[in-house]
């Protein structure tokens, strides 16, 4: 199958990427490793007006120890995580989970940011992020000096104007936390 037509942007900086995304509103997709996005495009399950490729933004690929935390850039490849001594020492669960991500070509191309953003419920990284009570920092246009911070899967919860579940009138993060707790309880009782 062939993907639908779209505009392609290959920015070299985060500011360029945010500007390109801003031009299309919600009708653009971000390409990180492409392991989840490309099949969606090829099956035409996703039909974005534009694709913004982050692969040329070197500043988004890193593993750092900072302020007692281990921090990952969104474009950090899964294979890099798999063999990182910092990850092995500080986050052994993440190292172990990475072995179970697809196969070698997938881990060579896939990124931690792409996996978390795609949020496939069967994926390893969103589950590990939740288990380790990790934090996601996202940046968007108009928020340059104030990255969004939140616990996965409820990033918008602590922000002013948090998304509300239209059926329940509650913050989406509250519903996400309840679902996560319910899954933990079900898993413990089996």
Question: What is the CATH C-level name of the largest domain?
Answer: Alpha Beta
In order across it, which strands form the biggest sheet?
1-3-2
Strand/helix succession: EHEHEEEHHHHHHEEEEH
Percent in helix: 25-40%
Write down how many β-strands occur, each being a DSSP E stretch of 2 or more residues: 9
Note the overall shape: globular
- Kindly report the CATH topology of the largest domain: Uridine Diphospho-n-acetylenolpyruvylglucosamine Reductase, domain 3
Biggest sheet architecture: 3 strands, parallel
Mean pLDDT over the full residue set? 81
Low-confidence stretches: 152-190
Class per helix and strand makeup: alpha/beta
Number of domains: 3
Cα-to-Cα separation, first versus last residue? 41 Å
Q: How much strand?
A: 15-25%
Number of helices: 9
Evaluate the radius of gyration: 17 Å
Q: In the CATH classification, which architecture of the largest domain applies?
A: 2-Layer Sandwich
């Amino acid at each position: 199958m062939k993907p639908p037509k779209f505009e392609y942007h290959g920015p070299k900086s985060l500011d360029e990427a945010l500007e390109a995304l801003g031009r299309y509103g919600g009708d653009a997709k971000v390409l990180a490793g492409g392991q989840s996005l490309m099949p969606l495009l090829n099956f035409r399950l996703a039909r974005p007006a534009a694709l913004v490729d982050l692969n040329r933004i070197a500043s988004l690929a890193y593993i750092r120890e900072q302020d007692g935390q281990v921090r990952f850039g969104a474009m950090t490849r899964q294979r890099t995580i798999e063999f990182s001594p910092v990850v092995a020492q500080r986050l052994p669960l993440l190292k172990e989970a990475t072995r179970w991500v697809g196969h070698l070509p997938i881990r060579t191309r896939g990124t931690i940011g792409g996996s978390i953003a795609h949020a496939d419920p069967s994926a390893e990284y969103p589950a590990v992020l939740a288990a380790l009570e990790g934090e996601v920092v996202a940046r968007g246009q108009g928020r340059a000096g104030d990255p969004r911070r939140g616990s996965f899967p409820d990033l918008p919860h602590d922000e002013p104007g948090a998304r509300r579940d239209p059926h329940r009138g509650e913050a989406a993060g509250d519903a996400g936390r309840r679902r996560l707790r319910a899954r933990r309880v079900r898993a413990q009782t089996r």
